[in-house]
Amino acid sequence: MSVKTLQINGVDVAVEEGATILQAAREAGIHIPTLCHLDGVSNVGACRLCLVEVAGINKLLPACVTQVAEGMSVSTHNEQINEYRRMIVEMLFAEGNHVCAVCVANGNCELQDLAIEVGMDHSRFAYRFPEREVDITHPQFGIDHNRCVLCTRCVRVCDEIEGAHVWDVAYRGAAAKVVTGLNQPWGAVEACTSCGKCVDACPTGSIFRKGATVAEMEKDKAKLEFLVTARERKEWTR
Question: Which of 65, 142, 148, 156 is the most buried (most CB within 10 A)?
Fold first, then answer.
């Protein structure tokens, strides 16, 4: 496979053809914030937090789904990009009901970490306070739709790693939400293997283990990384 050379923030980078800008940046030790990205599963460019500027292109591009090209010049941080990222995080907080003080993932939440990273201390947008349900019909797990950011990591990890495809996205616009089965209560979905991968993949406290209280939930990302690696190396079968 051929190698492509490009510049990221003025740093010369060489990476295999077909790699994304996000992969190239990470190999070069350059940080690009992400939320919907999860190593080992496909990228969808849903959160737009990884937007970068490419010289000669008059719009920002999502680094996780944009392939590198020979001679490409990429900027990952500037005043405009930083402002867009802060605006995205503010919109996520305003669109849902994210009350960190009473969340099981408080102190261990990627959305919370992003708010700190982009310097968000308030939202300029009016809070919508949507009426969203909590499903605790599963014997081990629950989902609080108030904390969901529609990253679809649960959908992809269940489909591509566990192979159960319990999760999906239903409805459109402001009504869009992740659903289990054919929009059934989670506990009624026979396809669920109770593996817990969706819990570990969720970046917020939306999908949680029952019995966890405020700030108690810790994600076992090492388990997820092991499963992804084992699958790629054909070291295990389901």
Answer: 148
